[in-house]
Amino acid sequence: MKCPSCGCENEEDAEFCKECGRRFRGFFEALDDKINIASLFTGLIVSVLVLILSSLFLLAAGITVTEFTWIPLVILIFIIVGFAGGLVAGLGRSDTMDGFINGLFLGLSILIIFGFLFGLALLSLTFIVNAIKTIWGLSAATEAGNPEFPGLIVNGIIFVLGTLSSGAVGGSLGSCIKRLL
């Protein structure tokens, strides 16, 4: 590879010019080599299918979701979704670290997509409930005064870390499986 600054000839995979020290590839270019977009989309599709199938399984099994069990169930389902999607995303890479990065990126994508949709639904629901309470003359609820609020924060942290780590572990395992095949 020829350096665009000084014209010195360098090795093809060099990050810096050996003559002038210019950096050839930035962080995002290097990350682009490690992420397989087709595997990520396939992993997202598998994640959505696993989410649908796990929800149908809960319905078919007759598991009743109560006020106290829905948060652990959602966390467990998203850990399974992240792992399955990460596993498929990792199959697109043969290097374990690349599989890890693909799985982690998939877990982050799941959090962003579903988090945005859930947040949008929750925000809409909050506005509707508060509007109804205002119309009926009831006081609006304040979440900060709720004694369960700290527990929700802890569950949220577990949800995020569980989804990210399960995606990364699934991606690493997927790349190991690809190497064995």
TrEMBL record:
Membrane spanning residue stretches: 37-63, 69-92, 104-132, 152-177
Keywords assigned: Membrane, Transmembrane, Transmembrane helix
Highest rank taxon of the organism: Archaea
Protein's UniProt name: Zinc ribbon domain-containing protein
Organism: Methanothermobacter tenebrarum
Taxon lineage: Archaea, Methanobacteriati, Methanobacteriota, Methanomada group, Methanobacteria
